[in-house]
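New to this. Help decode both lines:
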Amino acid sequence: METEAVKKKGMPKLLTRTLAFLGVTLGCVLLVLLGVIWVMEKGPSPTATEMFTRSVRETSAIRWVSRIFLSEEELEQYKSVSSPAEEGQTVNTSLIHMAESVESGEEGDLGYEILDISEGTCKGKLLIVNNPKRVILGTSDNFGKDPGLQLTDMVEKYGAIAGINAGGFNDEGGRGNGSTPQGLVIDDGVATWGAHHIGGFHVVGLDNDGILHVGFMTVQAALNAGIRWGVSFETHDGLASALIVNGEVQRQNLGGGVNPRTAIGQREDGALLLLVLDGRSISTLGATMKDLADIMLEYGAVNAGNLDGGSSSVMVYGGEIINNCASVVGPRRIPTAFLLMEEGDVDG
């Protein structure tokens, strides 16, 4: 009995010591993290400060980190904006010359291929689709009400071969569930989201002929251009989605930091380039907007647009995620995705 009493008496002391140890450990870790953030934001390297600040400002969940040691005035210099000239630029569709035959050729020719991308510090996957009409926009159900779908579920819903995430969505504090799209959604020629918005959007979309359009346009302008499948995306700082227009890199749009990225581009022969680059991992921190444009140019893009990135950047093939998803809790729910369909599964 006495031994039992001694044990019970000693338990509060052990618990107190354990909690104190955990508290001190947590405090030390916090101080180290704050020290690292201070060095990145206030340290001797302006380049490191700019890259770190731009990178965290692009996120939803930890955007606030940029304000720990930097004032709003200091942060203003890292805000990326699009120039008025670039916002008014439109795609010249005559530059795209569809191949005479874009269907599968010889036996075993799938009409598409997936490449491993390893360019400098960038790693990811590139899906090249010969016939652009085989790519459609997949959407979740009941925008603004029901949660979005994970990309694997979106691919399954449409019976698609492969897919990548597409437009942005409301994601305040990184807690968005993919329910509410950002900006405009055009699904099979109908503006299903953003139709009554006054003003324009940064649009990425495919028209009835399978030609990719990227640029700033109103809903009516997008519909007049014949866009059949379209989405919107812009960064928190309002950075436009256009990367390459009519063979020219949009220099003012190449701000941003290092993060996972998703983009879509088109070659002169009409083939689509669906690119997903990894990030926020030991193997690669991610890619910049310039990295996206450079890779698109390397693979022959005449036009290219940036899509939603970060932990949303995912490519699915064969029912599985084939890139390294940056989300520690699994792939995010999203409202829209660009999907590769079987030949004959798409009208028009």
